């Protein structure tokens, strides 16, 4: 009669599609709120209490019933994007800002050079990293961007 799809459904459950950008903004705002409340874990992520609070608050604000693993996966994706963004900016201080695109305004030569160094940054050429202020609060001082390792 019924198939046992436990492993398939659990695997699918972990990764969800964040189609509405406001969900990510809400997620980031709530993460910052938990960090500022002192609910940060030892190794940069949230404490158990922070994750528990986040699951409840995220559900209350968005109507989405995502569990800790689904939210943690989003945390990890955002952290990886933030690290790529930080590597892309590097130590360049003469970069402009394209307010229309919301990303770095630089020459094609600069982009070509940077994309050779950081291929994953190609997604930021025409649209910058969203929620940057919150992501800085979530990950700065707790994540090695690569520059600190040299």
From TrEMBL:
<dbReference type="InterPro" id="IPR024752">
    <property type="entry name" value="Myb/SANT-like_dom"/>
</dbReference>
<dbReference type="Pfam" id="PF12776">
    <property type="entry name" value="Myb_DNA-bind_3"/>
</dbReference>
<protein>
    <recommendedName>
        <fullName>Myb/SANT-like domain-containing protein</fullName>
    </recommendedName>
</protein>
<feature type="domain" description="Myb/SANT-like">
    <location>
        <begin position="21"/>
        <end position="112"/>
    </location>
</feature>
């Amino acid at each position: 009669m019924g198939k046992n799809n436990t492993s398939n459904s659990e695997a699918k459950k972990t990764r969800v599609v964040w189609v509405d950008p406001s969900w990510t903004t809400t997620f980031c705002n709530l993460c910052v709120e938990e960090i500022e409340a002192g609910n940060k874990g030892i190794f940069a992520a949230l404490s158990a209490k922070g994750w528990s609070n986040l699951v409840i608050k995220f559900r209350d604000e968005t109507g989405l019933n995502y569990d800790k693993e689904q939210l943690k996966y989003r945390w990890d994706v955002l952290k990886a994007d933030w690290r790529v963004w930080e590597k892309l900016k590097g130590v360049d201080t003469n970069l402009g800002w394209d307010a229309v695109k919301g990303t770095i305004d630089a020459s094609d030569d600069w982009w070509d050079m940077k994309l050779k160094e950081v291929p994953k940054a190609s997604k930021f050429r025409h649209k910058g990293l969203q929620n940057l202020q919150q992501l800085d609060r979530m990950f700065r001082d707790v994540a090695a961007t690569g520059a600190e390792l040299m």
